[in-house]
Amino acid sequence: MDVYLPIANLSVNGLVIVALGGITGILSGLFGVGGGFLTTPLLIFYGVPPTVAAASASTQVTGASVSGVFAHRRRGGVDYKMGGVTVVGGIFGTGIGALLFRFFQSIGQIDIVINILYVIMLGAIGVLMMREAITILRPSPEGTPRKAKKRRHHPFVTALPLRWRFYRSGLYISPLAPLILGVCVGALTMLMGVGGGFILVPAMLYILGMSANVVVGTSLFQILFVTMATTMMHALTTQAVDIVLAALLLLGSVSGAQIGSQIAQKAKPELLRLILAAIVLLIALRMLYGLGVQPDEIYTVVPI
Fold it and tell me: What parts of the sequence cross the membrane (predicted)?
């Protein structure tokens, strides 16, 4: 079933795009990531221009996040206070990201910037997650599995002024920490078309020290509102959102997120983290390879 994408100026197989949305929806429910870190690179590999892929993927991430938030809300897995602070920071971050996006687009280098950001971010996150997962899964000298160390927030967080209690996350920290984290994720969401969950989830665990049972739901809550703001920002500034492409992705992602959240309740967290790390590293290596191969079009097409 071939479908024409007007903004991308490309004919694609609609069933393939729906299937891609379903896969990223499952990842959303499993890991608390919006799925954009996978959607955008795969769309680029499929031939969709990076600008259109990044802008349209954020719309798909919104749909997957809605479904995932409801699933985690039913089991009390969302810290709304923490999520609200990161949402405020994320909305400010999308404004910063929009300015950077327009700048790189105006000089014809936005495609290469998106690819480089993906290689750096995915490579770093993938290595860290895989190292920790392997450490936990590897048996100790006594023959028993190693237990994960108790989460504690980073010393940088301790040094920040003001303190709020985030009861559901089990934290008493400065709201400036999740606010700054939200700004960074919002800017990356605008630039890369990702929900930011592949950065937000590790940061909530290793920097903020949040309780693991609310990290996935709270991450999806933040992603939901920030990707909504990102989609609006793209529609108003870059005009790169392809509605047909976004609709096909949404069709698969909403149902996929429900499936992922059910699997997440039964699977071993360390094993899931190892699988996610492997996927992230494979995509980073594929994009790194793409950076070393001369493209068909050397320059980005900039709309007038």
Answer: 12-38, 44-71, 83-104, 110-130, 171-199, 205-228, 240-259, 271-289
Q: Taking residues 161-165, what's their average pLDDT?
A: 86
CB 43 within 8 A of CB 53: yes
Quick one: which of 70, 105, 69 has its CA closest to 87? 69
CA–CA separation, 131 vs 126, rounded Å? 8
3-state secondary structure of 8: coil
Residues 6+ apart with CB under 8 A from 238: 51, 55, 98, 101, 102, 105
Q: Tell how far CA 277 is from the center of its chain.
A: 13
Confidence of residue 194 (pLDDT cuts 50, 70, 90): low
More confident residue, 52 or 148: 52
Q: Helix (H, G, I), strand (E, B), or coil: what is residue 45?
A: helix
User: What pLDDT is attached to residue 36?
Assistant: 62
Q: Which residues contact 78 (CB under 8 A, 6 or more apart)?
A: 69, 72, 168, 214, 217, 218, 220, 221
Q: Tell me, what's the pLDDT at 88? A: 92
Q: How far is CA 189 from CA 55, 59, 192, in A?
A: 9, 11, 5
Q: What's the rounded mean pLDDT across residues 61-67?
A: 68
Among candidates 96, 81, 90, 77, which has minimal Cα distance to 175?
A: 81
Q: What per-residue confidence (pLDDT) applies to 304? A: 47
For residue 53, give the H/E element and its range: helix 50-73
Question: 35 near 27, Cβ under 8 Å?
Answer: yes
Residues 6+ apart with CB under 8 A from 139: 145, 146
